[in-house]
Design brief:
Layout (H helix, E strand, L loop, with lengths): L3 H25 L12 H4 L10 H29 L6 H11 L4 H8 L3 H16 L1 H7 L1
Length: 140
Amino acid sequence: MISQKQIEDILKDYHWMINSIKILNSSLQDAGEGLTAQYGLESSLPKAKGTNGDPVFREAVRREKRFSVIDKYRYKVSIIQDRIPLITDERETEVLHWLLEGKSYRWIGMHMGLSDRHIRRIRDSIVEKMSDMSHLSKTS
């Protein structure tokens, strides 16, 4: 079960997590290209025993850690995406859209002609609906 605090945190981080997923996917797409060729003096030097001295192995480990970060972000983003249909009120839908775009409460309030305090109350309603598990069974 996802708590309201977890939903709040994911909503707050959603925008940059989506951007990170896109950037990490494109940067890791060519994983390992160009790492195996060594030229010059380095190619003639003795290689370290084991895997710690292998730059290709270390790069693979580094990239594998980044892939696990992508998986974690994807999981968190999917929590919100799976719950978007629960938000049916027009104001809530509009606030949710702008929150997912990374806009501040103040910006959203100015855009909608509401106070940032009112935007926070709407966000609280969104979080409550998204964390209420009984709604999920109705949409499945």
